[in-house]
């Protein structure tokens, strides 16, 4: 059996069902073997960068390993941003890259690149395999590293001749995911501290994404308000009586008031690394005069910027399970309040603005819709204003902030959960980077609505410069393009919105009841200032 075939058989046994990427000479042997393995479907993308975002989202919403592949040289470098993105989001993605034959390394072969050191800073493990007999064992090692402990991406470079070499046909058993159990004594100490101090806030990051039910149970036992980071928006519905809003970049006034002026004496941090966008530019008020308990699976996040009184290392789901049991042993019980009725009449008005367009969209789309949000000025409006009606309905990657990532994330999300409606919200700037992936959605019959806010400029850059420097360079403006017409030229259903009256239930129904993707272009130049002022203040502080 060829080494590459043995490796694919192992990935199949791990439950891998899709491989995201682009075929090329240095990985042709890999794709050739897929003809005989119908359990794995290649998702051929238009750019390797988008393949990385798709694989990341697929890993996130299946909660298992995902695989992404690219050629040697430029295919590999195009995957690096996706790997960095997966690293920041703790997503277990195996990045495979082709490489020139071992015998030609260092001889300036076509597309030659030593990719191993390029990937090392943005993966948990990176290696170039130079002997066919080692390829499968390295696949086993890398995938085990990817899914264990702190999940994250890994990389293997596979020279052409290494893939083709003959090896033993014995496929090892799949290594089971290893999780870190928290120290029970520390959990007991945390429970006692939380009960004794009586008042506090629960600060939730993206690390809690697989533990929302336990999170709500814990909050209802403590009766503490829940504040979420921008990355964690979508984990908890707005109508939960303890939900207090989003804190950090483009956060809400209620959440900011609690953190800055609230009198609670404790802070329970769950699954947040307390980075810049989560803490509103490292605001000291977050932990000031508060006893802090931090639950995380990554030991490096403790005491990184904020001094933590009681760090709890362990799998977050296990830590929450143990903590709720200890709270019960201390006499606490779950107390539920009458949920606030979900308000479908959102904050929208009649002005043709980004805020109002987003509100109107939510009126016409199912509450279970997952919105994958790209990077642009509209992202601030999404974080600040859009409502969460059901858990797991927003995918916002402000953490790494890669433009175009929301487009690939929509495709990965839809493949992971085919029955969930998916809407990508992106802008013309991001669309011109990775917008051709709508063809990948078409070729795979994925009914995704791509909403493109088209203002013919780099909106976030424009507003950022206008606020920070009181001027904006003319080159930030772009030639207006009719994106709906572009979509029509690709034989994709599309509709162009030029006013609030153009948005209605009939239009949305036509675009969301198809067997493939559709494009809704919103032609809108919004000169209102997005809710991103604190970010601008932070950047401006370095010029003083």
What is the terminal separation in angstroms? 65 Å
Strand order, biggest sheet? Answer: 2-1-3-4-6-5
Number of helices: 20
Fraction in helix: 25-40%
**Gyration radius, rounded:** 24 Å
Shape: globular
Unreliable sequence segments: 340-345, 538-542
Task: Describe the largest sheet.
Answer: 6 strands, parallel
Task: Explain this structure.
The chain has 544 residues and is an alpha/beta fold. Helix content is 37%, strand content 16%. It has 20 helices and 18 strands. The protein has helices at residues 3-13, 28-34, 48-62, 74-89, 115-119, 132-147, 160-164, 184-197, 212-222, 253-261, 316-329, 354-364, 377-385, 405-416, 428-434, 437-443, 459-469, 483-489, 505-512, 533-540; strands at residues 18-21, 41-44, 66-70, 93-99, 125-128, 154-159, 201-204, 226-228, 243-246, 266-270, 291-296, 310-313, 370-373, 394-396, 422-427, 448-454, 494-497, 518-523. The strands form three sheets. Strands 2-1-3-4-6-5 form a six-stranded parallel β-sheet, with helices on both faces. Helix 4 (74-89) links the parallel strand 3 (66-70) and strand 4. Helix 3 (48-62) runs parallel beside helix 4. The radius of gyration is 24 Å and the shape is globular. The N and C termini lie far apart (65 Å).
